Amino acid sequence: MLETRQLTVRFGGHVAVNAVSCAFRPGTLTAIVGPNGAGKTTYFNLISGQLKASSGEVFLNGNSLAGMTPSARTRAGLGRAFQLTNLFPNLSVLENVRLAVQAARAGAHLRGLNLWSIWSDHKALTSLAEEVLEAVAMNDKRRTPVAGLPHGDQRKLEVALLMALEPDVFMFDEPTAGMSADEAPVILNLIRKLKDDKRKTILLVEHKMDVVRELADRIIVLHNGALVADGDPAEVIASPMVQEAYLGVAPVQPSLPPRWGRSEKP
Question: N or C: which end of the chain has fewer CB within 10 A?
Fold first, then answer.
């Protein structure tokens, strides 16, 4: 289970994330929504270690992640995808995934053993990488340099890298950003497949409410850095506070009796 306790970060006098306490359980996809500047990506950065918290802590499976670097948190079980792709553009699709597989597993490639054992281990890692690419329907592009891939395929590859790391927690920050209407369903289908594994926890920052309605088991809402709503998607989306803060819908004003606000003749 992933948990944040009173997680806070300040930039000068500005509190970007304000004492957010929340637990995320395996088998659940939680959508994190809120208006621009609400603190969603900053909250992700605090969890994954890209930002240092001013106060509060992050726990994974009961263990504090305080003081751990982003790479150490990845090894502990946190997998993070970014709004912008984070790939090696000059390497092939297969090499990108193989590096992720290699980073997540012990073997001769880490121990500096003889050339035969290193070659054997390399072959096993390549085989695992090809299995991941098969799962995301990209094996036919395994020799393609990443720089030559269209944007949609780069986003698919980033999901493949996360899958190769076999994290306990998948964190997606606007996974369909910049994608066309034809490309986005591919990424959403991959996330649906990940949801089938009830051992995994999925966090999703997403602005598209149709995506949130379909995928989320739970919604939390951040506003001005604070947690303002948490619960069932239908109930949270229907909340007047969320309608105003996130969707920009003005609250309904009570109607006044006819005599109020009027001058009446005697």
Answer: C
